[in-house]
Amino acid sequence: MMKCSEMPYERVDMEKVKAFFEKLLKDSAEAKSGEEQFALHKKYYEFVDDVFTNIRLATFRHDCDTSLEFYEKEKDYIDEIEPVIRDYMTRYSKVLYASPFRSYLEEKIGKVAFKNMELSISSMDEKILPLMQEENALISRYDKIIASAKIPFDGEEYNISLLRKFLTSSDQDVRKRAWKALSEYFESVTDEIDEIYDELVKNRTRQAKELGYQNYVELGYKRMMRNSYGREQVENFRRQVKESFVPFVSKLQEERKAQIGVSDLKYYDNDVFFKNGNPAPTGTPEEILKAGQNMYHELSPETGEFIDFMIDNELFDVLGRKTKKQGGYMDMLPKYKAPIVFANFNGTSSDVDVITHECGHAFQGYLTRNEEIEEHNDLTMETAEIHSMSMEYFTYGWMEKFFGNRAGEYLKMHLEDSVTFIPYGCMVDEFQHIVYDKPEMTPAERKQVWKDLEKIYRPWLDFDKDPFYGEGGWWQRQGHIFWSPFYYIDYVLASVVAMQFKVWMDKDFNDAWKHYLELCRLSVKDFYETELREVGLKSPFSDGTIEELAEELKKKTL
After folding, report:
1. Which of 29, 222, 491, 520 has the fewest CB atoms inside 10 Å of its own CB, making it the most exposed?
2. Torsional sign, CA 396, 402, 408, 409
3. What is the pLDDT of residues 108-125, one digit of tens each?
4. Between β-strands 338-345 and 316-319, what pairing exists: parallel, antiparallel or unpaired?
5. What secondary structure letter does DSSP report for 168?
């Protein structure tokens, strides 16, 4: 294994891609046995692993410094070629799906893999490649607006991530002015973001119509690999959240007013939990990483081995920089069987959330990195997010390493924040369903939809007549709405499952951890709800799950 910075990058040669897939398609279609077809499939793994390792390396390096001209050009190239590569992969899936040796292959790679192939085949076609390339370019355009934000504040200039410490200041006047500065930035670009999103909605709707769908919602679900539930279950889930979580969270907000000493919760109070400000981690970014390493050594032998692998091979890039893309993520470099973690440390408690959340993703990837059948690691997003969100709770016992004598406050804040997120995540999801059901809406009508949803899901927030937030603009900050429609509900589904682990570990930590490890190792040999049952968890879709969870959490928070 080599350090991430030393991994060689090679631009993907599309002539080689074409030649490989043309031969693979022919050889696989002519295979005389399941064994022969599976041997070819292993060659497919090797080739695609190499291609996507290069794509992810270039993307990672571009995200770490968006001012690097070389990787900016590589990212533009990737935006063009990735849909073409996906099309080749879909064409290959069709050959496997129609194989006369299907039963042998199902034994090898699993029934879930074939269900996912079916979803993939029905959501992709060569004729929509130009639209997919245009979609990628629009997303990159949005990312550039967010990454290049230069926000003047108190004589300095900040990007959105580095401004966050002022947005959560203990001084209400400071945070009010910081939110105003952020609002003014978005006011200056809101028309362009509206234009980008309008084009994205129309583009995705055209893709759906070209493939024979009524609108993008059905296609979006297939692209999210929803292999065991659909729109009806999600709508029922959101209904339960409105009934059980919104009243619960509204009561929590009443408490929070007293905690921070205000009579009304303004939008600029939204992320503040204590009068003396939110607890922030002590120490430098390097010290935070070191504390994280110690924590994972104490948590379990498996997590200790994992964190050493990550740090020894420099697989973290977490320092906030002015030229860095916003956000955080984990990805896998399949050729090296290595997870990578990208984030923007900014001196707030979210730095520690990276060490727990993104490391939860990375830990699962590390545990299953040697899985020979790669389809078993094609996680659906709601499953992947359970690993990360549950890790946030499993590490509660080590928060003194990061927050010292404010660790108790951090735990209170984290749990309250996690609970408050549930209605917000549902609001993002319902907004997107409305938008893609009515793609002809104007930008102003979309903002009105968001404004109306705020009253349902976050009735406690007062936007104080702010010209951006008060007029339904908040969603423009939510990158997932642009990057990956319908992804956001996966955070919510995963969060309510992770909260079940929280309730479980409070009763028996070791038993809960044992079942968490089991879930991480299960990967996707089975469907979502079956996996949950297998490790003793309830489906978030089942009637009563949300109400029961809300009652359990009230005991810990109210």
Report:
1. 29
2. negative
3. 998 888 988 999 999 999
4. parallel
5. T
Burial of 411 (0-12, 13-18, 19+ CB in 10 A): middle
Burial profile 56-72: b = 16 or more Cβ within 10 angstroms, e = fewer: bbbbbbbbbebeeeebb
- For residue 349, the tally of other CB atoms under 10 A from its CB is 22
519 contact partners, CB below 8 Å, separation of at least 6? 386, 387, 390, 531, 535, 537
**Rounded-to-integer distance, Cα 345 and Cα 319, Å:** 5
Q: Which is nearest to 435 in space by CA: 231, 370, 443, 331?
A: 443
Contact 539, 527 (CB under 8 A): no
Rounded to whole angstroms, how far apart are CA atoms 127 and 125? 5
Statement: residue 248 has pLDDT above 90: yes
User: How many C-beta atoms lie closer than 10 Å to residue 12's C-beta?
Assistant: 20
Tell me if the pTM is above 0.85: yes
Residue 457 has pLDDT above 70, yes or no: yes
Contacts of 363 (CB under 8 A, 6+ apart): 302, 303, 306, 387, 391, 520
pLDDT of 524 higher than 70: no
Tokens 């879909």 -> residue: 90
Domain ranges (residues) in the chain: 4-127
